[in-house]
Amino acid sequence: MIFSNLPRLAFRFSRCTLRRLRVTAAIVLTPLAVIGLAEEDISTSRRTAVVRAVERVSPSVVSVQVIYSEPVVYRYRDPFFDRFFPLSPHGLRLRRGERERISSGSGLIVSADGHILTNDHVIRGAGRFKRVEISLSDGRQLEAVYVASDQVMDLAILKVEADDLPVAPLGESGDILVGEWAIAVGNPFALGRSASIGIVSGIDRDFGEPQGKYFYRDMIQTDAAINRGNSGGPLANALGEVIGINSFIYTGSNESIGSIGIGFAIPIDAGKRFLKEISIHGRVRQGWTGIAELLDITELQAKYLELPDAKGAIVLQVSVDSPAYLAGVDRGEVIVGINGEVVHNAQDAKGILKGLRVGETCTLKLFRDGERRAVTFTLEPVRQRQY
Which is deepest, 157, 160, 230, 271, by most CB within 10 Å? Predict the structure, then answer.
């Protein structure tokens, strides 16, 4: 009887064993599946908008090395004098010479034919440069040719000859939101391509006094770390679009290095205007208004002129037959606004006017004898000294 049931018992045993094996396998494999899904979720979450933005803009960022000549004075001993007076201090001689130095910065490829946008001070700040070398993200080393500069706005164009160049995606600086992500990419301290992140801390920052020889207006402020070598590199938004060109930092001291979270970038719209000027005319054509001399207003003058305060700039001289002259601007009038911007002093007015280019419209808000009026004229090519 027992032997006759053996096949049935064996069948039942095998089915039970198989079921147990399936359950055991499910118990073992389920954590592995969960781990796999978790790793996939983590991998997905790591690829944030910032990561994608850096990946988008980084290929177009280049390192700029400027090799320039630096004057030096060598001390040496006169061998003829030392032959007779070996220990005399009068045997020392001085000789002028030169030595090569390297200055580093950053740049941005803005056209497929090899144009690179950077700061003018990256090139000019090195003194008399001999050559400029560019390092691309793919490892290529190229020698660049200097094209042109805007020595008022602190912008410059270089050009390299190469194929398959990655072009930077340019955004709109007029569409910036205070508080949005800001990503600075560049070559700080010649370490190589680096990225730092912060936010847009402010927009339309004006510096009435020139910083060196440059007039910085409508600047973008950011707390993204910007250090020496970042100059000329892009400030990008979370979409990977370039919204500014990193230019300088505020350190709160006489030291020019060391980020404390206050950096400034030139709006990319100013860069686009510069690129357009170069592509059409091959150089920057600074506009001429004909306003030849301006003066700050004192409290006493403001009271005499019946001004509400001492803000503005007094026109002292206007060139005959100039755009301003033909528009009716006269000596003694006070400029209180230019193209919608408030003029605080003469330096402020000069900075705004210097930023205007040939063919652009200038609207002045003027005050005289207790009355306000506005005049508009178009800037012409430079004829003589102007502001």
Answer: 230
